[in-house]
Every structure is written in structure tokens, then in C-alpha cells.
Automatic annotation (TrEMBL), chains A, B:
Species of the source: Rubroshorea leprosula
Domain of life: Eukaryota
Subcellular location: Cytoplasm, Cytosol
Domain called GST C-terminal: residue spans: 88-213
Family according to the record: Belongs to the GST superfamily. Tau family.
UniProt keyword Cytoplasm, yes or no: yes
Entry GO CC: cytosol
Keyword Transport in annotation: no
Protein name: Glutathione S-transferase
Domain annotation GST N-terminal: ranges: 4-83
Principal subcellular localization: cytoplasm
Length: 231, 231
């Protein structure tokens, strides 16, 4: 397994890029990381992901794969050590179901809350809380995720939901919103603590102090686009 | 493999339900089909899919699985005969990538076009055509899908994209829109022909004559909701 054969096109602050890095680290796969400038996309990115023109893109032996959850499956199927998905088909289905739910109902909605205002913003905040309530009950109180036992390992669903631990607080700060009240979501809060202290995760997070400025800039750009479209 | 152990909660006209039926038929798995009334959801549905309250739900040995693409993976992992996904991890990644693309950029956008009006509708139509152009080039001209050879089998990506063959023409008719011009998309048109003549598919399609009335009713409901929200 030579380091040269695996490349990752990323963006330091992207939660969906970071989840690919976590998966590669869990597997012990060495890779070359190539930082992209999303305001001035490289020819390499446009060539490797012509459909979405977005990071992450994983390149393995010259073959490019896009979409972070698709990449996680690829990584798990290609490097068998330290499996990310459970072995049982039903448990695999649950992990995939909740990963998709977390992307669509939490991550996307939280970002929308950050990029909106007034009544629309409030609606997104409520939707996001409702989705997190479901994850609190069905995921974070369960056995699908990194547990307290020594033998418990980080897996696909931890990695997919991992952005909650480090990005959601930034969105809350930048958007002056509160979504994740630890008193309301104790199981989620306990998982966040376990996740952030995991050896693979704690050294592989974007610098917290640089994130608010970036998130503020990006969310304002989206908000301004929306205001323009409404005119 | 007893027929009693597999149940499918569905809706006759739903393309995402039908894809689960196709997968089960390809595998030769017998199942009990339970029709749902989406205007009056059964307690069974609410109990089995409390998160989304939507069909399809596959129940296998009492365990419920929701989300059609997640179900396809489950079916493929549980019944190994006639594999739906390719064996090679990279080919699997491509199939998953395009299945997701087809759901988000074609199916969802075509439905949005049907449930909108004026400039918004035109924007959706253009977006849908652009997405289909990409699929024409990258999917339907390629080897990812049911080919002309006798040995070519129907797989995950055919099943995921299959709604294009029988539902999209109904959306076009009901919405008075044209998206899929066979002259512009010859490879797509040829695949549609092969798909609709496949032994598993041709006897497992909703009755074409009943679909427009249903689609008209549903799309008008969504359109009216949007008009109300705008007031």
C-alpha cells in the first residue's frame, strides 16, 4: 500500500472532506492531501469531478470517486482492516439510513438555518432540533455508534455524523442560534465527548478558532444570493 | 426462503416502491405486498417507519428497513443470487454515485418542475435536461447499465434509474413539458427500450393509463401548498 497511490482533494474546513480523512486514518491508509481553493477551482478538480465540481474527491490508482458517503463505502470495501460498516446487513442498513438522515435532515438544515433569516430561519432551527431529537433517541442512545466500552470502535455512522461535534457549535455561534442543548440531548452530548477524544479524531479537526470567520463569510454569500434572487 | 417472512409496504404508483419490487423479483424473493393509503396512513406504516412515515418499507423477519436505495443494498447483501451491484469497489462506487445523482438531480427536479409554474418551472426543466445530458454521456453510453448483450443483466443502477422509463413520460404529459427528447438523448432512449422489454420489468409496472390522473392530483396539491405559503 504505497502512499503515492491515494490522493484526496479537499478543503480544510469542509466536514464532508474531513469524514473521508477520518475513514482513511481509521484504516491506516496513507494519502496525499491536496487543498483546493473553492473560489478558484483547479483544473484537476474540474477534471476529476466534472459532474459536481466539488470536494472531496478521492483518487486511488488514478480512479476518481466523489460524494463523501460513496467514498466511505469505497474505502471500507477496498481496505478491509478496521471495518467501518457493521457486518450484519440489517445493521448496515440502519447505519446507511441514519447517515443519510443526518446529512439531509440535520447537516443541510443547520446550514440552511445559517443562510437564512426571519421566519424561515426559525423554521429551519425547529426542523433541525426535531431531527436531532430523533437521532438522540434512535442513534445516540443505541449501539450503532462509538460506545463507552474499550472494545468499541469508530465506524461509518460516527464518521458520517461526526460534523455535529465540531461544526454545529460553529454554526450556532456564527448564526446566533441554539440547536444542540446538552440538557435536551444528553446521549448526543456524551457521544460528542467520546468522539472528540478518540485518538483518530482529536488530531484531525480543523482549527476551531479559524472556522467562524470562514463560516460567516460563506453563509453571508449564500444569504446575499438569496436576497438577490428575491428582488 | 419462505414467502411469509418478507413484506413490502408500498403504493402502486410510487417509483421508489417499484424499484424495491424489481430488486426482489430479480432475486426471486417472494414477498407479501401491502398497499398503503398515503392520505390515511396505516398504524403499521407509522410504527415501521416512524421517522419518515413513507413507503417503501421492507420488513424481513420482523425487521423494518426504509429508504429505497438503502433497501436495495440490503436486498443485495441478504440474497446473494443475481447480484445487483458490481463486485469491483470502483464500479460499485460509480453505481452508487449515479443512483444518488439520478434521485437528486433528475427525479426530484422533474417532480419539482411538475409542482411549479412560470419561471421557476422553466428553471427546473432546464436543470433536469442538463442532468439527463450528463447521464446520457456518462451512464447510458457506458457499461454501467443493462446492455444489448444476452449476458447483460439488470442491476442496481438500472433499478435506481428505472423510473425514467415509465414515470418521466407521465410527468411530461401532466406538466405539458418536454424533457426527454429521444433525438437529444439517443443512448438513454435505447436503454429505456431495453429496460422496458426486460422480463422482470415489463410485467411489473403501474398501469400507464391510471398514472396521469394520480400525478395531476398530487402535483396540484403540492402546487397549491406552495401558493398558500407564498401568500
Amino acid at each position: 500500500m504505497e502512499s503515492k497511490e491515494v490522493k484526496l482533494l479537499g478543503l480544510w474546513v469542509s466536514p464532508v472532506v474531513r469524514r473521508v480523512e477520518w475513514a482513511l486514518k481509521v484504516k491506516g491508509v496513507e494519502y496525499e492531501y491536496i487543498e483546493e481553493d473553492i473560489y478558484n477551482k483547479s483544473n484537476l478538480l474540474l477534471e476529476l469531478n466534472p459532474v459536481h465540481k466539488k470536494v472531496p474527491v478521492l483518487v486511488h490508482d488514478g480512479k476518481a470517486i466523489a460524494e463523501s458517503l460513496v467514498i466511505l463505502e469505497y474505502v471500507d470495501e477496498t481496505w478491509k482492516q478496521n471495518p467501518l460498516l457493521p457486518q450484519d446487513p440489517y445493521q448496515r442498513a440502519l447505519a446507511r439510513f441514519w447517515a443519510k438522515f443526518c446529512d439531509q435532515q440535520v447537516l443541510r438544515i443547520a446550514w440552511n438555518a445559517l443562510c437564512s433569516e426571519g421566519e424561515e430561519k426559525q423554521t429551519y432551527i425547529e426542523q433541525c432540533k426535531e431531527a436531532l431529537e430523533k437521532m438522540e433517541e434512535e442513534v445516540f442512545k443505541g449501539k450503532q455508534i462509538l460506545g463507552e466500552d474499550e472494545g468499541s470502535n469508530i465506524g461509518y455512522l460516527d464518521i458520517a455524523a461526526g460534523w455535529i461535534t465540531h461544526w454545529l457549535p460553529v454554526y450556532e455561534e456564527v448564526g446566533s442560534i441554539q440547536i444542540l442543548d446538552p440538557l435536551q440531548f444528553p446521549a448526543t452530548a456524551a457521544w460528542i465527548n467520546r468522539f472528540l477524544n478518540h485518538s483518530v479524531i482529536k488530531d484531525n479537526l480543523p482549527p476551531r478558532d479559524k472556522m467562524p470567520a470562514y463560516c460567516h463569510k460563506r453563509s453571508q454569500e449564500f444569504l446575499n444570493e438569496k436576497r438577490e434572487a428575491r428582488k
